[in-house]
Amino acid sequence: MPKGKQLSHLLPNLSVLLYHRVCEARVRRPHAVDIDKFRSQMHWLRWSGHQVISLKQAYAALFKGVSLPTRSVVISFDDGFQDFYDYAFPVLQEFGYPSIVYVVAGLIGQPAKWLAEGDRAGDETIMSAEILRIIHKGQVEIGAHTMSHAVLPKLSATQQAEEIGNSKRVLEEVLGEAIESFAYPYGVYNPGVRDAVAAAGFKTGLTVNRGLANLAPNPYEIPRKAISWGDNCLGFFHKLLLDNKLKRRPKEGLINSHHY
Predict the structure, then answer these.
(1) Would you say the pTM of this structure is higher than 0.90?
(2) 68 touches 14 (CB < 8 A)
(3) To 5 degrees, how large is the angle CA 112–CA 118–CA 119?
(4) Do 147 and 167 form a contact (C-beta atoms < 8 A)?
(5) Does domain 10-241 have CATH number 3.40.50.2000?
(6) With b meaning 16 or more CB within 10 Å and e meaning fewer, what string describes 205-244?
(7) Which of 6, 148, 248, 256 is the most exposed place for a label (fewest CB within 10 A)?
(8) Rounded distance, CA 50 to CA 13, Å?
(9) CB of 225 within 8 A of CB of 15?
């Protein structure tokens, strides 16, 4: 069982936001946010007095006793789609906000093949190694999201170790530095998967369990609040400030093909 002393009772509220894609308004998909809405959300974070911090800062606050002066937010993206660089990255640069992107390491510069298994074309492209190096220089931490976007609980222990460990190795070769954080594809995991992430040398694991990050039971089960197409200003406000109770997602089971 991964261990980490939880110190959240000493902290202001800390939320980790989960995005997948930022696109033009005409690209209407459940896990996409149009560019104007995304910019408005970033404006709202500044106006409301939230401090946007890195995941490394959040980890230090949650588990190492480092203080946070005010309520804080981490901005995370899953998968590593090219449109992060095209649309989200310029906005984050505009505001000076750090973020973290979890990349499917075996598909760098290639189409998102796992989407073709459902009712999607699968032609969305993952950022190239060159672009990953560019965004990494602009306050974007890179995390691992397996090699192929695998449903980890359905794999053998050996396969899990390969998907998890190899994704870390590939990204470290691309960036030339340690990759410390992992996000579970589809948000599904079980104790064995969680422990494999710890054994691979990651410091943190991010879930799709909803709620405050303060409620994380350990560094490998950090909750996030998913932001999607249907979240208008009121919905964003509700998720950020009011939707704080921990709501666990199923650790195993059917995967919605629309969920990245």
Answers:
(1) yes
(2) yes
(3) 100
(4) yes
(5) no
(6) bbbbbbbbbbbbebbbbbbbbbbbbebeeeebeebbeeeb
(7) 256
(8) 10
(9) yes
Residue 212 identity (one-letter amino acid): L
How do strand 99-103 and strand 140-144 relate by DSSP bridges?
parallel
Tokens in use for 83?
């449109």
What is the residue type of 152? L
∠ CA 178-214-93, nearest 5°, is 55
Residues 6+ apart with CB under 8 A from 259: 31, 186, 187
For residue 207, which of 181, 188, 227, 180 has the smallest C-alpha distance?
188
pLDDT in tens, the chain (260 residues): 666 555 556 689 999 999 999 988 766 666 889 999 999 999 999 999 999 999 999 999 999 999 998 999 999 999 999 999 999 999 999 999 999 999 999 999 999 999 875 545 555 899 999 999 999 999 999 999 999 999 999 999 999 999 999 999 999 999 999 999 999 999 999 999 999 999 999 999 999 999 999 999 999 999 999 998 888 888 898 999 999 999 987 554 434 434 44
- Nearest Cα neighbor of 140 from 183, 88, 188, 104 is 88
Per-residue burial over 72-82, b if 16 or more Cβ lie within 10 Å, else e, is bbbbbbbbbbb
